[in-house]
Amino acid sequence: MPLVVQKYGGSSLADAESIKRVARRIIETRKAGNDVCVVVSAMGDTTDELLDLAQEVSPLPPPREMDMLLTAGERMSMALVAMAIANLGHSVRSFTGSQAGVITDASHGRAKIIDVTPGRITEALGEGHVVIVAGFQGVSQTTKEITTLGRGGSDTTAVALAAALHADVCEIYTDVDGIFTADPRIVPSAHKVDRISHEEMLEMAASGAKILHLRCVEYARRFDMPIHVRSSFSPKEGTWVLTTTTEGDPVEEPIIAGVAHDRSEAKITVVGVPDEPGRAAQIFRTVADSEANIDMIVQNVSATETGLTDISFTLPKADGQAAVQALQRIRGEVGFDSIQYDDQIGKLSLVGAGMRTNPGVSATFFKALSDTGVNIEMISTSEIRISVVTRSEQLDEAVAAVHTAFGLDSSEGEAVVYGGTGR
Amino acid sequence: MPLVVQKYGGSSLADAESIKRVARRIIETRKAGNDVCVVVSAMGDTTDELLDLAQEVSPLPPPREMDMLLTAGERMSMALVAMAIANLGHSVRSFTGSQAGVITDASHGRAKIIDVTPGRITEALGEGHVVIVAGFQGVSQTTKEITTLGRGGSDTTAVALAAALHADVCEIYTDVDGIFTADPRIVPSAHKVDRISHEEMLEMAASGAKILHLRCVEYARRFDMPIHVRSSFSPKEGTWVLTTTTEGDPVEEPIIAGVAHDRSEAKITVVGVPDEPGRAAQIFRTVADSEANIDMIVQNVSATETGLTDISFTLPKADGQAAVQALQRIRGEVGFDSIQYDDQIGKLSLVGAGMRTNPGVSATFFKALSDTGVNIEMISTSEIRISVVTRSEQLDEAVAAVHTAFGLDSSEGEAVVYGGTGR
């Protein structure tokens, strides 16, 4: 019997009615002749409410206790979904992350899945139960403590379980119809993409597209697990995230998958760094030790008369304070002048596997930005992505301009197969 | 170092402020030179809210999933209390019932504690942590499933842990000052009792006094664990529940511990039962098989001319419907006429170890009821208790009359040592 792993997020589980609707959806899949294993997030705003409660009790709660608290959220939703399924006359068992065999490292609040040992799940599926699993949580291999995977961790749970159970597909249910060519709140003419490669999805997620969590896509790519991102409010097909086939007519593949944007980062500029070997290494070692995730890096051309240079990089705003403090401590040692912190930046990324073979993409991209009067502060590229940093207030305009320039606008909301060459 | 086990109920943990107050109270005990292990219930109305949510999703949720759901309540409160303690600068670890080694049978929703294996607790206490444990929950020895002990189960968790850890005292914190001679909402002149024996407390709890759960007191008596029932809102001493010492001057011990009442029961009368051996056994076997807990039983004198008799018994209202249905199924077999169901009854119980040696107690008791015009429908007694069933609407008046007749009224709210003899 085919095995489908489904994941429902908090917005699909907002209240009792939503839970009942999700239960009916699960049972439809079951009745269509599939074994079903379902991963659930916490209901609606539960996680935020628990975070608020924690904040009221303690400004700096111990991470171990935070994980104890937050894991209550999925525990509630998994039990309620199981009850709703039982009420439809189907046998069902719910399991916590720990019971489901989600083994992690010991990093409370952002644990990584090390292994999945789904013995109880396999057994329950074999006995004919629908299985519900609490997403976002696991148990540490070394300390036996309860851990959480961090925000978005339920997607990762679903893909990891799907891989461990050798599922046929991992369906991620959300409150939108799938992956769009851009955020429809910014670009109303953005349209749903029918198919996207793991690789492109990875770049989109890394560039700020919030539908799928980066780690989840990494996991899916590693285990070659097809993901079907779709709406829990509609029966329509969503977006399939698949391994790129080398077959197929490349002319029919869209060059560009979409335009992602991100306002969650800040820029730090270290001003007046002596232009000597090892200085940059010292700086980035220090930032990494403060546990900040560095994204883009730019080093200006050295001003030869002074022998000094500026180094800029971007990182999540949440990591900004710690990084600045860490850098200030090594100022004397490295010998730089000052640190500038700028959290009014935005990042725009154009993603598409077709870039590899279409050399005109970057020209079109920069012309679109230039025509709109957008000032570019930083640039970084991969084989299938171009990202730029702009002022935050210019970001929406920039996204719309790039979306239009690549012919992604669609009044019907249908996917456009874009096959132009040499632009 | 002395070890104190404390238990805080939901009303002491209503919100973030209450949780912080409880944390300060725990730390006071710690600073006074004790190891402290704290058992917590779910916050305020959490359990009721979860029950409501379950009801919205399914009218008859599977008990296994219900336990999964409800155990989230204590999980949240234990983590929050731990955070509040950490915020006061003390090291702390919270543990679920399962982690704390609370081993139960497999009866979801009303599991019994079979064993307590508090290895992780002992270890954490040894490392100098304050320990917080989720009450009301455990893990089944046979199925490894999460179980709950039923309402009031957190008290039982606390006493069971106290016994397993060889604690010096088990403090039960609540929203009243201790055990009262009667419910102060019915008898405003009721006063707090300073000391009460395990045996008397057992009768009080079985008779409807709601401060301590019956099973908790049974556990405390079996393991000879002193319980200190006190208010979490005041530093005053509460009521000590202790093993009766054979020493001490009996004249100084109060004859009567208090007057309990109970409106949670109903009366079933099986009318026209053939007065033959084995009929009553058939009836009570059937009721027991419906999982109803029978309390009092009365069999009327047989009417010799008909050879028929009536059998009445009381049971929790919650069990009433199942019992009536079970009895109706054996009507033909047993050959009785009809079943009467009456849920407008009230039970009044007078409890006191001094009754044993004071033969006048029952005379005073029945005279008080008679003077007030209360009609008695059933009577049952133990060595240290007399209970009567009356009409529900006469119960308050009856409680007040008995309270006064035994000199328990006190305008100052102070404990009265009642040493009369031979009444």
TrEMBL record, chains A, B:
GO terms for molecular function: aspartate kinase activity; ATP binding. Residues 268-344, 350-423 form the ACT domain. It is an enzyme of class 2 (transferase). ATP binds at residues 7-10, 174-175, 185. Gene3D superfamilies: Acetylglutamate kinase-like (3.40.1160.10), VC0802-like (3.30.2130.10). InterPro entries: AceGlu_kinase-like_sf, ACT-like_dom_sf, ACT_Aspartokinase, ACT_dom, AKii-LysC-BS, Asp/Glu/Uridylate_kinase, Asp_kin_monofn, Asp_kinase. Pfam families: AA_kinase, ACT_9. Pathway: Amino-acid biosynthesis; L-lysine biosynthesis via DAP pathway; (S)-tetrahydrodipicolinate from L-aspartate: step 1/4; Amino-acid biosynthesis; L-methionine biosynthesis via de novo pathway; L-homoserine from L-aspartate: step 1/3; Amino-acid biosynthesis; L-threonine biosynthesis; L-threonine from L-aspartate: step 1/5. Catalyzes the phosphorylation of the beta-carboxyl group of aspartic acid with ATP to yield 4-phospho-L-aspartate, which is involved in the branched biosynthetic pathway leading to the biosynthesis of amino acids lysine, threonine, isoleucine and methionine. Belongs to the aspartokinase family. This is Aspartokinase. It comes from Janibacter alkaliphilus.
